[in-house]
Amino acid sequence: MRVLITVYPALAHLYPVVPYAWALQTAGHDVRVASHAGFADTIASTGLVPVALGDAGSPEPRLREDARQPPAPEQVDAYARAMRLDPEEREHWIAFYQWNLNPASDYVRPDLPDAPDLVEFARAWRPDLVLWDLVFPAGAVAARVAGAAHGRLLGSNLDYFAYSQERLAARRDAVRAAGLADDPLADLVRPLADRYGVPVDDELLLGQVTIDPLPKGLSLPTATVKVPVRKIPYTGASAFPRWLHTRPQGRPRIALSLGESTRRYVAGDWGRTPKLLAALADLDVEVVATLSPLQLAAVDALPDNVRAIEWVPLTQLLPTCAALVHHGGMGTFSAAVAAGIPQLVCDTDDSLLFRPATAAPAEADSGTYRAGREFGVDGEQEAQEAAGWLHPEKNLLATPCAGYVTAQGAGVRLDHQKQTVPQIRADILRVLTEPAFREGAGALRETWRAMPSPNEIVPALEALAAGRSRGVS
């Protein structure tokens, strides 16, 4: 069969779906991966065939001056009040409405060439199945136009979309009474759908199935039809560094990895990096820190026991490590699970809510976010932009990730805002010396291993394309 996969043009969106694409490809199916033209070479580097959307020489939609900005906090809270969300539900709503609708808006615009290019390619190529990135809903429209079965790929995200859609549906009258749009996701997709005569319904917005790589207890409860799958960590192909050929002798190795996205625009990492390195400095351990110059901007000097390297595949590094300190991203979490090592997850009590920055760009907080900045906009362009938005001092998924790891006994939560350097150091020592954490990490790895592999879900996807199945709950 022919399978069309759509991905948002970022490594954090591409890498999680590569194992699914290869499982389909090695089963004999014809696979194409569609994204912005400027991302085509990156897709090709994974051994998959790219479909280039739009013009490689034009800015990605997120870099345009008219790119969608996060909704105002007052509007976010108006919905939360109307739906009577408790504090945990409110955080999930913020993740959907203020964070994820922004990238979802990029590649569903009918006034830009990318989404129409996708639909026209699907109309010509006639895929049997379309698997679309959670924040690339134009894939659903393309599937409808081509008459294909379709499903969503959670990738490295929680299903904030279905979770929030279900709460909106249950409390729609109250939302309308508050004068708010009762279906923001439908409103986002409708202009493209209307252009091609596609009705906007729940199946278009949430897919026929959802490929869910998260273990029970971490994924959000929704009524969607799920195809559970084991998340295979994939971080690209590169030469195996010689210094990783052997495990360290005499003292344990600890990996420190703080993410691939905020490293592009949070100078000094909110002060978290210096604090973590200070806690590690006095320990008899070898530290491999995968940190960028921007993350190290506030570090005066690296401790003697720390090797800083901007990039090394975690799939190569983690099997040589006794523990991982990380930011709470799902890709990093999954790599640690697969390696069977304990985790120390950085989290704070901050709400996920973005708030507008009031200072000028040059004076704004080091955690200021602006549309396009995560795509590497240069300093001259940045200086001409508005101040942007203050980013909470944590990863989007830090809290659910930290909660899950600690509940499984596979690690601890670190809070750079509240903990002192000695307290962080004590937690690191606990994870290294108490056998229960290694046992918890081992049990978590067995839970992961018990989930179906990407190869094992291929028959379910074949059946979906043939109209013989609705997935697996």
UniProtKB/TrEMBL annotation:
GO MF annotations in UniProt: hexosyltransferase activity; UDP-glycosyltransferase activity
Keyword Transport included in the entry's annotation: no
GO biological process: antibiotic biosynthetic process
Entries under InterPro entries matching the protein: EryCIII-like_C, EryCIII-like_N, Glycosyltransferase_28, UDP_glucos_trans
Protein keywords: Glycosyltransferase, Transferase
Residue intervals of the Erythromycin biosynthesis protein CIII-like N-terminal domain: 22-259
Ranges where the Erythromycin biosynthesis protein CIII-like C-terminal domain occurs: 275-347, 404-464
CDD domains: GT1_Gtf-like
SUPFAM superfamilies from the UniProt entry: UDP-Glycosyltransferase/glycogen phosphorylase
Superkingdom, natural source: Bacteria
Entries under PANTHER family matching the protein: STEROL 3-BETA-GLUCOSYLTRANSFERASE (PTHR48050), STEROL 3-BETA-GLUCOSYLTRANSFERASE UGT80A2 (PTHR48050:SF13)
Family: Belongs to the glycosyltransferase 28 family.
Protein name as catalogued: Uncharacterized protein
Record organism: Micromonospora deserti
